[in-house]
Every structure is written in structure tokens, then in C-alpha cells.
Amino acid sequence: MALKSRAKSPQETVLFRIVALFSRLQLGYLFHNQSHPKLLVVLFALSSGTIALGIITIAAYMTKLPLLFPPLAPSAFILFYTPLSPSASPRNVFLSHVMALGCGLLCLKAVVALWHESSLLDPALMNWHRILIIALSTSLVGLLMITVKCVHPPATATALIAALGYFKTPFQVGGLVAAIIFLLIEATLLIRVFGGLPYPLWRANPALTKPYRELAEGVETRGGFWEESISRIYRSR
Length: 237
What we know:
Elements: H1 14-24, H2 27-30, H3 37-63, H4 72-81, H5 90-114, H6 128-148, H7 155-163, H8 170-194, H9 206-209, H10 213-217, H11 225-236
């Protein structure tokens, strides 16, 4: 009587091996198992930022939508270089840019309503009215970010662009908001799937990011030899 073939365990399947290999290539695994974590973080930030901004650029070119604006680049840098920091969380990125956009537009409209002759809708014009708008909008968004505990530094540039009068139509305003959402979706996929990191879906959770302190504060915060040795011993337990 022929012996029945032994059933394969889950660990012996091809799919399991593929997933295991993929997990060992993720930043979350390599970060604690390589001697040069800073280089890994830099490579991840460069490659992920290039992919994310490249896709948005292609989408803007093909759809003719206003998806590109200067603060998008520094936001992408923070998202992929310190992905577990509070300033890189979807909550901080989205709300800060929206608040900044609102502050810039609100201050611009208020000053234009008070001084009709100022011609402030021309972005190239610079006078004391424009200086007032810039000062009010940037200080207001800074106050809001601190008050709401929703700090994302590149958002102040969004307030500046709005204060200069570059957003002339609701279509352009919608393009900025869509670009931020697009970037956050890309960040979630790249950081969680390809990075293997506990990137939050909305608000940053310090308890989840504790083992990756450097990815929340910057890899320059890594300690010396003895701190690193103690940290490795602690993580191995």
C-alpha cells in the first residue's frame, strides 16, 4: 500500500517563503539588523520620495489637474525621512495644510475687502498690504498648529503661497487638497507595505513607534556604542 504523501506545513509553501523574503527586505526589519541604519533610511527616503512625487507629477501631466505646488516636496521629505514622527502623521499633514490654505485665503480676502485699490490679486505685486497679509497668515497658521497640536512645518509655505494670491479659483484650491490626500495615500502604502513600519492611519501613536525612535526624531539621534549595545540587548528580550 502506497504511503500517503506528507502534507506541507505553511512554512514550507512557496507563498510563505516569498512573504518571508519580502519581510526581510523591509526597512522595519533591516533597520535593527544592519550596521548602517542611517544609510538605509536615506535610501528609503530618496527612493520613496522620488516614487511618490513622480507619480503625482505624472498624474498632474496626464490629467491636467493642479496637483503640484512647492510645499509638497518638503512634506514628502518629512513623511519618508521621519515617517513615525507626529509631524508626518496623516492628521498633522492634512489638517495643517488645510488650515494654512484657509488662513492665507482668509487674510487675503479680508485685506482686499478693506483696501479695494490694493490690487492684491496679482501675485507679482509687493506692497505694505501684501506684507500685512503674509505676516497675518503665517503667524495665524503657526498659532493654530500649536493650539490644535497639529504641527507640520511645510504648511506655513502653503499659507504664504495662498497669501501671495496664487490660488485664484476653487479648482486650484481643490487641486492642492487632492495632492495632499494623494501624497498621504502613497505614504501609507510605501511606508506600511514596503517599509514594514507602523505608520499611523490618522494620529501618531508613540507606543507603537518606541522601537523606532530614530525614525520619529531623525537618525542623528542615535546614541553611542554603549547606548546602541544596551538598546540591542533590550530589543532581543
